[in-house]
Amino acid sequence: MAATLGQVCALVLVAVLWGGSNPLLKRATGNVEPVQEGNRLEQLLQEMKYLFFNYQYLVPLCLNQCGSLIYYLTLASTDLSLAVPISNSLALVVTLVVGKFLGEDIGGKFRA
C-alpha cells in the first residue's frame, strides 16, 4: 500500500514537531533544580508545579504532544512499515539540526 502525499506530509510534520521540540525540552529541563520536600508525593507535586508553570517547558511539551496526536491519527490510514521509519528518522535529523542551531555539542565532526 503506497502512502498518499497527505500521509507523507503528516509524517513529516510529526517529525518536525518531535524533532524540533526535543532539544527545547532538553534545554528547559536542564536547569531544573532538585526540590527537596518532606516526602516523595510533596516533592513530585512541587516538581510538576515548577514544570507546568514554566512556559519554556510547557510550549515544547504541547508541540511534542501535538506531534504524537497527528502520528496516532495518521497511523490509522498509513502502513506501519512506512510510517515508523519516515517519522523517526526525520525526527532524528530535525533534532540534530535544531540542537546544533541552539548551540548543543552533537559530537562527531559535523561542522555547520
From TrEMBL:
Task: Say which domain of life the source belongs to.
Answer: Eukaryota
Q: Which PANTHER family match?
A: TRANSMEMBRANE PROTEIN 234 (PTHR28668:SF1)
Keywords noted in UniProt: Membrane, Signal, Transmembrane, Transmembrane helix
Q: How does it sit in the membrane?
A: Multi-pass membrane protein
Q: Mostly located where?
A: membrane
Q: Which GO terms describe its cellular component?
A: membrane
Membrane-spanning parts: 82-102
Tell me which species this is from. Answer: Phascolarctos cinereus
The name on file for this protein is Transmembrane protein 234 isoform X3
Q: Where is the signal peptide?
A: 1-23
List the InterPro entries hit by this protein, alphabetically: TMEM234
UniProt subcellular location? Membrane
